[in-house]
Structure formats: structure tokens, C-alpha cells
Specification:
92 residues, mainly alpha, 7 helices
């Protein structure tokens, strides 16, 4: 995954891009930092960049209810739930 996609997501913490790549590779939604990483990806990157950069397994995790519940905006949650239904067949 290109570093530009992950750079700047956690500007207020000292988390390396290597650590972020590791979190995405492990893809454990029981890890709060992984959930936070997917949240930031959804809220700060363009949709088509997300589709290009995340694997299908990572996209499924990013669009999971566990991650979507962390998004404050009800409208954004609704949009991502719609995307999950269309792309992944997930019912909410």
C-alpha cells in the first residue's frame, strides 16, 4: 500500500506508517487502533482511493458495523451502510 495513502492519518500520535500497515494486515477489529484507523480512512480519504487501496477483506472490515458505529455523522454512517449493502451484500 502506498505510504501516501496512510500518511497523516494519525498526525497527533507517533504511529509509523509501518505500524499502520501492520494493523491493516492483521485486520483485527478487536484492536481499538485498527477500528480507529479504518474510521480515519473512511473519513479522510476519497472513496475511489479507498476502493483502490484496501483489499476486499480490509474493505469489509472498514464497512463493518463495528467501525461505522464510531462515525459521528449519521449521514456518513448511512452512506457507508448503503455502500456495504451494495458492494458486500451486508444487511444492516
Amino acid at each position: 500500500m502506498p505510504n501516501a495513502f496512510l500518511s497523516g492519518l494519525f498526525w497527533e500520535y507517533e504511529i509509523s506508517e509501518t505500524e499502520m500497515e501492520r494493523l491493516l494486515a492483521v485486520n483485527d477489529l478487536n484492536e481499538p487502533l485498527t477500528v480507529s484507523l479504518y474510521n480515519r480512512i473512511l473519513l479522510s480519504r476519497r472513496w475511489y482511493d479507498i476502493l483502490r487501496q484496501l483489499t476486499p477483506t480490509q474493505l469489509q472490515a472498514a464497512l463493518s458495523e463495528r467501525v461505522l458505529r464510531t462515525i459521528y455523522s449519521r449521514d456518513m454512517r448511512r452512506r457507508y451502510r448503503f455502500a456495504a449493502q451494495r458492494l458486500l451484500g451486508q444487511e444492516t
